[in-house]
């Protein structure tokens, strides 16, 4: 492509547009508008329109730290793209005294928090019975356990299903053990 035809040129050389800021937001919005030929006002309308049977408006995040932050950011982005309201899905987070003392970012992002015991994770984020109890008490329609902690315990989805609470999980395998890839070979000294 000649410099005359480039959208952005610097000293006669082609320069790619910035991948941050206003340019990226405009580009992403164009992509969304091209693929979206419908409007949906709420999660309930979304479920009705697409033939679902369960409306999820409140999610318990049974994890902490960056895992919780990434989950909330992703779902809020999707909610904004789908409903034009990033707060269409509300979040309840579990919070230990250590998380409160650290003023963890995920607590600020949540709509509500539930204090849980501190200490090792079998007292809180890996405690399946505690997670299910909180999910029933609040109540929430879904639980996201992230990675680590209780997400690896098969008892969690079983108990949630028994109480008609959705268990949110990734749609693709996440690790080599799930894709049947051999473990990495380490160089020998």
From TrEMBL:
SUPFAM superfamilies in alphabetical order: PreATP-grasp domain (SSF52440)
Pfam families for the chain: Biotin_carb_N
Source organism superkingdom: Eukaryota
Molecular function GO terms recorded: acetyl-CoA carboxylase activity; ATP binding
Gene3D superfamilies named among the record's database cross-references: 3.40.50.20
Domain Biotin carboxylation: from-to ranges: 55-189
Keywords, comma-separated and alphabetical: ATP-binding, Ligase, Nucleotide-binding
UniProt cross-references to InterPro entries, sorted A to Z: ACCA, BC-like_N, Biotin_carboxylation_dom, PreATP-grasp_dom_sf
Protein name as annotated: Biotin carboxylation domain-containing protein
Lineage of producing organism: Eukaryota, Metazoa, Chordata, Craniata, Vertebrata
